[in-house]
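Hey, can you fold this one?
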Amino acid sequence: MKTSKILYWKLSAYFFFFFFTWSSSYSLFSIWLGQEMQLTGAQTGLVFSVNAIFALLMQPLYGFISDKIGLKKNILFFISMLLVFVGPFYIYVYGPLLQYNVIIGAAVGGLYLGTAFLAGIGAIESYIEKVGRKYDFEYGKTRMWGSLGWAAATFFAGQLFNINPNINFWVASVSAMVLVAIILSIKIEVTDVEMERAASVTLKDVGHLFTLKDFWYLMLYVIGVACVYGVYDQQFPVYYSSLFPTEAQGNQVFGYLNSLQVFLEAGMMFAAPFVVNKIGAKNSLILAGYLMAFRIVGSGLVEGPIGISSMKLIHALELPIMLVAIFKYLAANFDTRLSSVLYLVGFQFAKQVGESIMSPAAGYFYDSIGFRQTYLAMGAIVLAFTVISMFTLLNEKKTDLQKPTSKDMGQVI
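Sure. Predicted structure:
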C-alpha cells in the first residue's frame, strides 16, 4: 500500500511537470506561428500536419518498444532528457528555420515536437496506465495532475507571451529538469512473469491486430471523432484572439480561459473513472462524441467572446471521459500485453493520421470561408461518425485471463 501511494504521487508529479512543460511551450503555438513567425493559416496548417506526420511515425515505435520492455522506464527517461532542450530548440533552431524556409522548419520542428510531445504523451500515458493497473490506482486520478500542470502554465502563458514569447520556452526547459529528477527517483518492482510476458511480444502479435475488424472499427471512431478535437484546437487561439479589440488582450484572456478549462478538466479527470465504470467504456466513448459534436457545432453558431468561451469549456467534460474510456475499452477487448501498441497505434496513431489529413484542409477553409463555417462542417463530421460508432464499437467486456498471478519476488527497475 505504501509503495502504491508513493508511486501514485511521483507519477502524478511527473504528469504535472510534463504537461507544465508542454503547455509552456505549446499552448500558444498557433499564436506564435501567426504573430511571431508571420505564417498564414494555410502555412500554420502545414506545420501542424507535419508535426502530426512525425508523431505518427514515432507512435508505433514507442508502442512496440514500450510493450517489449514492460515496466522499465527507459522511454520516459529519454523523453524527459529531450525536453530539457525545448527552450533552446524553439529560440535558436525552430524559429529561425521557419523564417528561413517554412518547409525545412516544419520538418525539423516536426521531428522534435513529434518525438518529444505529440508521440511522447502517448508513451507516457500508456506506461502510467500500466503501472496503475499493477499497483491498483486509477489512471484518471493520476492524469488529473497533468491537467493541473497544463492549467498552471497556461494561466501565465498569455501574459508572458505578451512580454516575450521566449520566456515561456525557458520556463519549459526548467520544468523539464524537474521531470528528469522525478523519473530518476521512481522504482518499479517487476516480477519474472511480467518480464516474460513483455519479452513474448512480437511483431507478429502487432500485425495480428490489423486483421481484427474490431480494431479497425475503433480506429474509425478515433479518426472520425477524436482527431477532430485536435484539429479544432490547433488554430482556435487565433480565432479567439481575433474577437477582442487587440491581439494582446485576446492572448491574455485566452490564457485565462484555457486555465479555467483545464482546471475543470482536472476535476472531471477525477470523476471520469466513476462515470466510465457506471455506464461502460463504449457508452462513454459515444457520450464523449456527442459532447464534442455539440461543442464544435456550437462554436460555429455562437457569437462573441462569452459564447465561444462557453463552448470551449465543454472540452473539459468530453476529454476526460474519452481518455479514461479508451484505456478501459482497450483493456476489456484486446490483449493487454499489447496495451501500449493498442493505445499508441489504435488511438494516438489513428488520431494523428486524421489530423495530418484534416489540418491543411482546415487551414485552407479557415482562410477561405472563415472559422465559423468550418466549425459547422467539422461538427457535422463528428456527429456522423459518433452515430456510426454506436453500431460498430463493442458492447461486451471480456474477462482478462492474461493478468499475471505469480507471487514471485520481482526485480526493481
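Residues 67 and 338 are 6 Å apart (CA to CA). Let me know if you want another pass with a different chain boundary.
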